[in-house]
Write a structure and sequence with these properties.
single chain; about 375 residues; alpha/beta; Rossmann fold; Dehydroquinate synthase-like, alpha domain; 2 domains; six-stranded parallel β-sheet
Length: about 375
């Protein structure tokens, strides 16, 4: 088991009818910037619940944060924060709104000339505007972690950043909100959470027995509740277990004491930037093929995964191979396509574009062994066509 530090100060407020607690969590005299996305919160009642709970506060609204939040849009919110002396931000939405809010919170106090340097150059975040969240779409775990992913339209890039200063102060997570979600968002949520776990689990054994068992339990629960939540999101028992899985998948706990991968995400982000795939769709396309290319390095954990999660039998080699197939079939059973050609007609130069970008960024050794070189990136992407 590897050395680790565990720090997560986010207060999670889970369950039905928790909106009234906003008043006890947000400072009394705060001027609030309320961020949200395309307006679904107006239709499902969340907006009215939040506004009612915040009577007496000065609130400035900023809507229109995209499903893949863009630097260009978020900088408009940064200007509002500066102009109005905002001292608290409330993100009301899914992972994209929360990710966007993390960038706003960091960029508003950034002292450099170009806030994109926070992502492109890893510029240090010294201070951040405090913020909380009201989660409306379980998937990313952003409600209980300190990382985010932001896109830039001008260059078709999608990059990651994070800081210990970017944990939400609190997150209100009400499972009943998923009743109004479109099927596609539910499909994405299941796969997003599932792959988050795999990125922290499908590496190599590190004698972290408890971590493996926790990861496997999240995977098994998603396999159990995933198809059910697509059929009946109004079932509170199913919805609550699904939402908690999504949070647990990426709140920092599973990664402690173990090696992690994240190459599926890094390559998948490029498919989103170049071809507009949903984040989870890109993961479903790339993940199984990355496991095939890295089979010899992941074989031991793939076999463990196949035995414990999928109850497969045979030799370790056979079980490891079958586990990859079962994973891809699981994504397909949820109605998600697993090849790039099913999403785009203009994908043929994709592998080289991604390889060139990674070379420019110095990303020449990805994965838990740092051995996914540029040639392997090309191979993985082309296998995903």
């Amino acid at each position: 088991m590897l050395n680790f530090e565990l720090y997560n100060p986010t207060k999670l407020i889970f369950g039905k009818n928790q909106y009234e607690k906003l008043k006890t969590e947000i400072p009394k005299n705060a001027t609030i910037l309320m961020t949200y996305g395309g307006g679904s919160i107006m239709k499902n009642g969340v907006y009215n619940n939040v506004i009612k709970a915040l009577q007496g506060y000065e609130i400035i609204e900023f809507g229109g944060i995209e499903a893949n939040p863009t630097f260009e849009t978020l900088m408009k919110a940064v200007a509002i924060v500066k102009e109005n002396n905002i001292d608290f931000i409330l993100a009301v939405g899914g992972g994209s709104v929360i990710d966007g809010t993390k960038f706003i919170a960091a960029a508003a106090n950034y002292e450099g000339e170009n806030a994109w340097d926070i992502l492109a150059k890893g510029a240090l975040i010294k201070t951040a505007i405090p913020f909380g969240t009201v989660l409306t779409l379980p998937a990313t775990g952003s409600e209980m972690n300190s990382g985010a992913v932001i896109s830039k339209k001008e260059t078709d890039e999608k990059l990651v950043f994070g800081s210990p200063l970017l944990f939400p102060k609190f997150s209100i997570t009400d499972p009943t909100v998923i009743q109004s979600l479109p099927l596609r968002q539910l499909q994405n949520g299941v796969i997003d959470a599932y792959v988050h776990v795999l990125e922290q689990y499908l590496t190599y054994p590190s004698n972290a027995f408890l971590q493996d068992r926790i990861a496997e339990s999240v995977l098994q629960t998603l396999i159990e509740v995933g198809p059910k939540v697509l059929k009946n999101p109004s079932d509170y028992i199913i919805a609550s277990n699904f939402m908690w899985c999504c949070t647990m998948a990426l709140n920092g706990l599973l990664s402690k004491g173990v090696p992690t991968d994240w190459a599926t995400h890094m390559i998948g982000h490029e498919l989103t930037a170049l071809h507009g795939l949903d984040h989870a769709q890109s993961l479903a396309v790339i993940g199984p093929n990355l496991y095939k290319v890295q089979f010899e390095f992941k074989k031991e954990k793939l076999a463990q995964y196949g035995k414990r999660v999928w109850n497969l039998t045979g030799s370790d080699e056979e079980i490891a191979q079958k586990a990859i197939i079962k994973t891809q079939e699981f994504y397909q059973s949820l109605g998600v396509k697993t090849s790039l050609s099913e999403y785009s007609n203009s994908y043929k130069d994709t592998s080289q574009i991604i390889s060139n970008r990674f070379k420019e960024r110095g990303w020449i050794g990805l994965g838990e062994h740092k051995n996914i070189n540029l040639e392997k990136v090309v191979e993985i992407v082309e296998m995903s066509y």
